[in-house]
Write a structure and sequence with these properties.
This protein is α/β, with parallel strands linked by helices. It is built from 30 helices and 11 strands. It is globular and about 95 Å long.
């Protein structure tokens, strides 16, 4: 039992390590979705390589315990060094100060700072399976040990994910978290080794880890390591700003810098705003406010603390609702505002809401004259939610009849190439799909204004100047002559015509977030990544071509297997089934997280709950199937072994494949039903519970297939360690492809429905291969 506890702890450690890696890479990559998708894919690919290699190596090792303990010790020791390496990566790879890091350099850096840990994590699985079998843990004989290790790791992942989501995320020093995990793992390792008797001498290694961690903590070395690595990372962003403070919040890494009297705030390495800098934000504030003749009730979503709110509150408004997700961001800024720059926070007309902006818009009953979405550019699926037609329809619902919606997007002053035109055009056309009247302004930022009623928004500088003067606004930071500088007639007409005529594959929606795919192309272009051309080529591939490619692939496999040994085919098909199931499981997890955010808003704890429900389903499915197999394979009362259960397991595997296929087809309409406003209004929390149930079911189907595939592959005469390595490795390989393809390609380009159809086609192909081979193996000696 101590061994299974140690494996469970390692599962939790892997979950925490993955979160730490992603958060650190999120900072150095400015929160870019493509780089994060690449990192997650490389994480799983590293586990694949480690698991397959481990399966081949461990089968030839006579003494499993020393190898297992060495693997656990190395995993405990190298994580801190790799986190340090990520923080200095930009400097080490000579990334331009404050510039975007290219995907090529992300790939090189991740190979140095990510692969060593993930390959060892993959190697751990077959090594643990061998240990479980050698230690004669009840109910884990032969291939059943694979399911036992899988379940223990899954349970540990649940615990690790929940601990980090609700507790460890607030810890400022990640090296302290890593050291605490290493000490806990080392302590349990000592207990395990002491019980083995034969290998008690090895307990000196985990004991040394405990003593070393305690010494580093007491000497303050962990704090110093954290401080120096954060400072090195900061200098790669903005060396001219002195680092004043850094915080790890539930939503982002916040950093505050200062240069003379001006502060700069960075979130996940990306510049958010400077303050007090009213001169910078005043033109936008007055352009927003002057687009409505008499704005009295205003909603501002994000980015108000630099000077935008200060200028908005100069107007004779009745109320200003300001929505900001991260309360620590406002706390970080407000504590350093002084004098008149802080007075707006005491204005009775201002009310601050610490909630997701999309969630607020969906649930508020208030009506507004002006809604301003001042969020960052749609570089991630999370932010893209504020640029979809679904969000715009929600905004339209809370606007008064003459209400105005305003948003912005980074652009180029004098260059509007195809990539930028497609990017900005996808936003323009999404807005125009909901509002009949749309106006875009040129410049380093494109401002978009929309309404339903004629005579409200205007491109005439004289009209805006008159509204500005009639509001009685007096400010030293802006003059009404600046309207003419922004709204140049020829440039306005040229821009609006180009954006309206841009050839966009589809509207930017929650279920097909095409705008953030265009943003990824721009990110790759400006960072110098060679992958940009590949993304453009992918964007031209029609969906039917993908389906034809999948069909051709399975046709070739079917033709090959028609001439091959049925037993060998059975092993291949079980590996193929678990590979596509790994892909489907990761795809479902990404889909449900994306769609949950669209429906309910970005709520950090609930995203953690979704992941935990998926992992719980994974563990429950694996446990139930593994337990049933253990019961079926018990010797009868006379002590004779039971008859071969492999035909039954084959039928069960086909049942799981069919279930995943049906689940894939049913997912889009179920999500559409959950997102429908009538159901939301009447069912509320009940719909959310159903959503969690779907996540749980997807995890159950994914987890239940793992021990089945392992047992069937083992029955074809493969060694235990090779079976463990191959099944775990190809499961992670499928998940690696699913992580990269679903979030970055199929979902934004082809949409939710087509993504699920693609998953269903993969499972249909696997099901066909399993079914056609089933009768051929009926008489085979499989045990």
């Amino acid at each position: 039992m101590v061994l299974l506890l140690l494996i469970t702890l390692m599962g939790g450690y892997f979950a925490i390590a993955q979160i730490l890696y992603l958060r650190e890479f999120l900072v150095i990559c400015y929160g870019n979705e493509l780089s994060i998708g690449l990192i997650l894919s490389l994480w799983l690919l590293g586990i694949t390589i480690g698991a397959v290699a481990g399966g081949k190596i461990t089968r030839h090792v006579e003494h499993a315990t020393p190898l297992f303990i060495a693997t656990v010790a190395l995993l405990s020791l190298i994580l801190g060094g790799e986190i340090y390496g990520i923080r200095i990566m930009r400097s080490a790879l000579d990334v331009q100060t404050g510039g975007l890091i290219s995907l090529d350099k992300v790939l090189v850096g991740s190979l140095a700072t990510l692969f060593p840990f993930t390959v060892l994590a993959g190697f751990f699985f077959p090594a643990a399976c061998k240990m479980v079998e050698r230690c004669n843990v009840p109910g884990t004989k032969g291939a059943l040990s694979i399911g036992a290790v899988y379940i223990a790791e899954a349970v540990g992942s649940i615990i690790g994910g929940v601990l980090f989501t609700f507790w460890l995320v607030a810890c400022e020093n990640q090296f302290t978290v890593i050291a605490a995990c290493a000490v806990l793992i080392a302590a349990v390792t000592c207990i395990f080794l002491w019980q083995t008797r034969k290998w008690r001498v090895l307990s000196a290694l985990p004991a040394l880890i405990i003593v070393s961690a305690a010494f580093l903590y007491a000497a303050g070395s962990l704090n110093e390591l954290n401080r120096t690595s954060i400072l090195a990372r900061w200098k790669s962003f903005t060396p001219n700003n002195a680092l004043i403070e850094t915080r790890e919040t539930r939503y982002q890494n916040l950093a505050l810098g200062r240069q003379e009297n001006l502060y700069s705030v960075f979130g996940n390495g990306h510049f958010i705003m400077s303050f007090p800098d009213v001169y910078q934000y005043a033109p936008a504030a007055h352009l927003f406010m002057s687009q409505h003749p008499r704005p009295r009730d205003v909603l501002l979503i994000g980015g108000g603390m630099g000077g935008l709110l200060e200028e908005i509150l100069i107007y004779p408004v009745n109320t200003v609702d300001y929505v900001e997700l991260d309360p620590q961001q406002i706390e970080l800024i407000s504590g350093r505002l002084t004098g008149t720059h802080r007075d707006f926070l005491d204005d009775e007309r201002l009310k601050i809401h610490y909630v997701d902006g999309r969630h607020y818009v969906k649930n508020t009953s208030r009506q507004y004259d002006l809604v301003i979405s001042n969020v960052a550019d749609p570089s991630t699926a999370v932010i893209n939610r504020y640029y979809t037609t679904n969000f715009l329809e929600e905004v339209s619902r809370i606007l008064k009849d003459d209400g105005v919606f305003a948003t912005k997007l980074s652009s180029a002053v004098d260059y509007m190439g195809t990539d930028i035109t497609n990017y900005a055009g996808s936003v323009y056309q999404a807005v125009n799909a909901v509002f009949p009247l749309v106006l875009a302004t040129p410049g380093a930022e494109n401002f978009f204004f929309a309404c339903r009623k004629d005579g409200i928004i205007s491109a005439d500088p004289a009209v805006l100047a008159e509204r500005y003067r009639s509001a009685g606004v007096v400010t030293p930071y802006f003059s009404d002559v600046q309207f003419a500088q922004v709204l140049q007639r020829d440039r306005m007409q040229s821009l609006n015509t180009a954006l309206k005529d841009a050839r966009i594959p589809s509207l930017n929606t929650d279920t097909r977030p095409i705008t953030y795919f265009f943003n990824l192309i721009l990110w790759g272009k400006f960072s110098g990544s060679s992958e940009t051309a590949a993304l453009k080529h992918i964007a031209r591939v029609p969906f039917w071509a993908l389906l034809c490619a999948v069909t051709a692939l399975f046709a070739c496999v079917y033709a090959f297997q028609a001439r091959s040994d049925p037993v060998r085919n059975l092993g291949m098909n079980s590996i193929g089934a678990i590979t596509t199931t790994g892909l489907a499981g990761m795809a479902f997890e990404i889909i449900f997280i994306f769609m949950f955010q669209n429906i309910y808003g970005y709520v950090y704890q609930k995203i953690g709950i979704i992941v935990s429900f998926f992992m719980f389903g994974l563990a429950a499915g694996g446990f139930l199937v593994n337990y049933c197999m253990a019961v079926l394979e018990r010797p009868n009362r006379s002590g004779y072994p039971p008859p071969s259960r492999i035909p039954l397991y084959q039928r069960l595997l086909m049942l799981f494949e069919t279930s995943i296929l049906v689940f894939s087809i049913a997912t889009p309409p179920l999500i559409a039903l959950a997102a429908s406003r009538p159901l939301q209004a009447h069912a509320g929390v009940g719909v959310e519970i159903v959503f969690y149930a779907l996540v749980l079911l997807s995890g159950f189907l994914t987890g239940g297939e793992f021990p089945l595939a392992g047992r069937i592959y083992f029955s074809t005469g493969q060694p235990l360690q090779k079976t463990a390595g191959f099944v775990d490795g190809f499961d992670c390989l499928g998940a690696s492809v699913g992580a990269l393809a679903t979030g970055l390609i199929t979902l934004p380009l082809y949409g939710l429905a087509n993504t699920c159809i693609l998953i269903a086609s993969l499972k249909a192909g696997c099901l066909l291969l399993l079914f056609t081979n089933y009768k051929k193996t009926a008489a085979a000696p499989l045990h």
